[in-house]
């Protein structure tokens, strides 16, 4: 994560205790970052936001040292490159545990070891030695008398469940039956948990419109559109719950029970390329806020209502060095300076929306011509102060039409709604309680904004129809997409 706000600090309280206090939401920390903060600075950021659960993809010595005496519960990762050697040699496994786990205890609170990451789908040729590697790691822990405090598991993607809906009929890919049976037997015998990487973003974007966006974002659906398993008649209010339940049913198909599912990765990208329209700050903020609310209500999915879904958000910082599409580089919830990409509100261990504030933003997928007309009107006749979205200003990036229109629409609305101004803009705008502020771009109406900007509102009311006289005062290129990433601790 990254966050250190100028002005008011946005509290991000992700880590909640797993015991009687309820489920927790932790974070993943990837390191494919151009200017990753130092280990001590990273831990300071985690502590400042009261993040109490962290997953590392490796066993970074500097981070593990810096985490000492922080009380943060840590999952340490065996990298995919290490799995094969560990699976083939118990001696290598013992050496790995001594070097990467035992050496940091008890000061660093290591509670689990994740053996590889999505091994069965990412490096299938290593699949046959995955469970032997887990056994070797576990035996090394037993030898060091650490097995009671450190669990061993392995994160798997939803891709090993070919047909996840309806959940009640979901099963693991049959070609992996032998390995999965061994895996489940290991988890059952060692009283560990199944690690699941679940991404409704991909489920939605690859679904060709089968499921509505609201379903992926935890938004309530009208009765006629609710997702129901025809076999159990369970209602699924989110794709996240359906994915977790599909995993439980897949485990049950092997006649195992009592193995809890922990979601080791989930999230939503906040910026994407021109062919990734759903990767937006608005969607990412909605998903993550609603996820936190969902997880911290301490309930499980419909088939396992009493087993909370402990979850790790993907991810702390944008990993800009990752290959692939633009969205792959933009999952971070904080900038490396500690400032929030988008606000996540939590109070007393439970997420809450800022019900006292509403914002007027552009709808995702709105007609671009109408958006451009609305933007021109707001910055012209509407009297919105659009200086902040000019090049070099705090809200210029991401440089796309939706982002700029959202800022202009909101600036107009905050100044004019008390005088009858509307949030419509020819059907391209909507009201939200999610603060769209990000980084140093602070929207009017945010708890971080000092005032309405000292603007004397004009007499024009909010537009609700076409804009035949739209001003050309501000013309903005719709598709000059740029990545909103700053890797400097000086950024505020």
From TrEMBL:
GO cellular component: plasma membrane; plasmodesma; side of membrane
Phylogenetic classification of the source organism: Eukaryota, Viridiplantae, Streptophyta, Embryophyta, Tracheophyta
Any Pfam family hit: X8
Keywords from the named record: Cell membrane, Disulfide bond, Glycoprotein, Glycosidase, GPI-anchor, Hydrolase, Lipoprotein, Membrane, Plant defense, Signal
EC number annotated for this UniProt entry: 3.2.1.39
Localization annotation: Cell membrane
Membrane topology: Lipid-anchor; GPI-anchor
One GO term of the biological process aspect: defense response
Range of residues in the leader sequence: 1-22
Official protein name in the record: glucan endo-1,3-beta-D-glucosidase
Species for this entry: Momordica charantia
Gene, per the UniProt record: LOC111020775
Catalytic function, reaction form: Hydrolysis of (1->3)-beta-D-glucosidic linkages in (1->3)-beta-D-glucans
Family to which the UniProt record says this protein belongs: Belongs to the glycosyl hydrolase 17 family.
UniProt domain X8: residue ranges: 358-443
A GO molecular-function descriptor: glucan endo-1,3-beta-D-glucosidase activity
């Amino acid at each position: 994560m990254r966050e250190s706000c100028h002005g008011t600090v946005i509290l991000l309280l992700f880590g909640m205790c797993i015991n009687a206090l309820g489920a927790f939401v932790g974070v993943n920390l990837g390191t494919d970052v151009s200017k990753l903060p130092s280990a001590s600075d990273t831990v300071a950021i985690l502590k400042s936001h009261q993040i109490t659960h962290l997953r590392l993809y490796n066993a970074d010595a500097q981070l593990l040292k810096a985490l000492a005496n922080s009380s943060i519960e840590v999952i340490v990762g065996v990298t995919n490159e290490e799995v094969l050697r560990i699976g083939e040699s118990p001696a290598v496994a013992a050496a790995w545990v001594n070097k990467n786990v035992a050496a940091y205890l008890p000061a660093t609170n290591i509670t689990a070891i994740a053996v590889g990451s999505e091994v069965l789908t990412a490096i299938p040729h290593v699949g046959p030695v995955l469970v032997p590697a887990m056994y070797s790691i576990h035996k090394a822990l037993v030898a060091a008398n650490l097995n009671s405090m450190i669990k061993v598991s392995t994160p798997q993607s939803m891709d090993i469940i070919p047909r996840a809906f309806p959940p009640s009929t979901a099963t693991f890919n049959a070609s992996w039956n032998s390995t999965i049976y061994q895996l489940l037997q290991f988890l059952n015998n060692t009283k560990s948990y199944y690690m699941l990487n679940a991404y409704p973003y991909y489920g939605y974007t690859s679904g060709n419109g089968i499921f509505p966006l609201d379903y992926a974002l935890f938004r309530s659906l009208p009765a006629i559109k609710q997702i129901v398993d025809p076999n159990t008649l369970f209602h699924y209010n989110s794709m996240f719950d359906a994915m977790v339940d599909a995993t439980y049913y897949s485990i049950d198909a092997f006649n195992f029970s009592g193995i809890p599912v922990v979601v080791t990765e989930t999230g939503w990208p906040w910026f994407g390329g021109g062919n990734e329209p759903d990767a937006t700050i608005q969607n990412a903020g909605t998903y993550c806020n609603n996820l936190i609310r969902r997880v911290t209500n301490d309930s499980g999915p419909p088939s396992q209502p009493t087993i909370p879904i402990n979850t790790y958000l993907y991810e702390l910082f944008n990993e800009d060095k990752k290959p692939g599409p633009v969205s792959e580089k933009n999952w971070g919830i904080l900038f490396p300076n500690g400032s929030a990409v988008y606000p996540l509100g939590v109070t007393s261990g439970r997420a809450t929306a800022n019900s006292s504030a509403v914002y007027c933003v552009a709808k995702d997928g709105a007609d671009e011509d109408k958006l451009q007309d609305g933007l021109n009107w707001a910055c012209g006749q509407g009297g919105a102060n659009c200086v902040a979205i000019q090049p070099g200003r705090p809200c210029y990036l991401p440089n796309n039409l939706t982002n700029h229109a959202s800022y202009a629409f909101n600036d107009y609305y905050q100044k004019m709604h008390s005088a009858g101004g509307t949030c419509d803009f020819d059907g391209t705008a909507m009201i939200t309680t999610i603060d769209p502020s990000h980084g140093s771009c602070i929207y009017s109406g945010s708890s971080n904004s000092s005032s309405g900007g000292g603007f004397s509102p004009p007499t024009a009311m909010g537009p609700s129809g076409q804009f035949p006289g739209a001003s050309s005062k501000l013309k903005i290129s719709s598709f000059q997409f740029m990545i909103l990433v700053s890797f400097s601790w000086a950024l505020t």
